[in-house]
Amino acid sequence: MASSLRAGHSVLRAVDAVSRDAEAPTSEEFSRVINETRVGRDVNTALQQVADRTGSEDFAWVVQAIAIHREVGGNLAEVLDRVGRTIRERTQLRRQARALSAEGRLSGIVLMAMPVVVFGILAVTAPAYTAKLTGTSTGHVLLALALALLVAGGLWLRSTVRVRF
Questions:
Q1: I want to staple 5 with a disulfide (CB 3.0 to 4.6 A). Which of 29, 77, 87, 138 is the partner?
Q2: From CA 76, how far away is CA 2, in angstroms rounded?
Q3: Which residues of 44-68 are buried (b: 16+ CB within 10 A; e: fewer)?
Q4: pLDDT of residue 151
């Protein structure tokens, strides 16, 4: 869109260029915007509905930039370039955070699996050792308590490692 705007086209012509040049899901949504504006709907409303349908926060930023430009004026191509750069930087930051939290996620998997694996190995290699837990009602209560604590610890660990944007 920014390239079309830099070439001197209007916003509607830029949207039309995107509908012709983009790949399948994007071109279909922008074609729908063009069709809706032909029957009288406002461009901002049509673009906002695309953002709502796709659920893309990044595209919502683009729609807000276009709406502000239509009210205030200015160089929309430059604004869209900055929004695009911000979106790319935000995506890169999200990827870096996910990569850095991968160690915590892997540690969580190991910590959650270790008690179950150790108990399974002991049950196979030394069944007399685990018989106190599997053969008595007190052992069943202790196993249930251990399982509940393991689930609580897993949920806490998951909330600690999860990165929210």
A1: 77
A2: 7
A3: bebbbbbbeeeeeeebbbbbebbbe
A4: 93
pLDDT in tens, 25-52: 888 888 999 999 999 888 889 989 988 9
> What pLDDT shows up at residue 44?
87
pLDDT for 43 equals 87
* Pure H helices in the chain: 2-6, 11-21, 24-38, 43-54, 57-72, 76-100, 102-125, 127-134, 137-161
The answer to whether 79 and 69 are in contact (CB under 8 A) is yes
Name the nearest CA neighbour of 45 among 142, 53, 103. 53
**CB atoms closer than 10 angstroms to residue 157:** 17
Distance from C-alpha of 44 to C-alpha of 147, rounded to nearest angstrom: 53
pTM, rounded to two decimals: 0.62
CB atoms within 10 A of CB 76: 20
- Judged by DSSP in three states, 124 sits in helix
Q: Tell the residue number behind the tokens 């901002």, with chain if given.
A: 44
Tokens encoding 60: 């919502």
* Spans of the chain, pLDDT less than 50: none
Please give the pLDDT value at position 132.
86
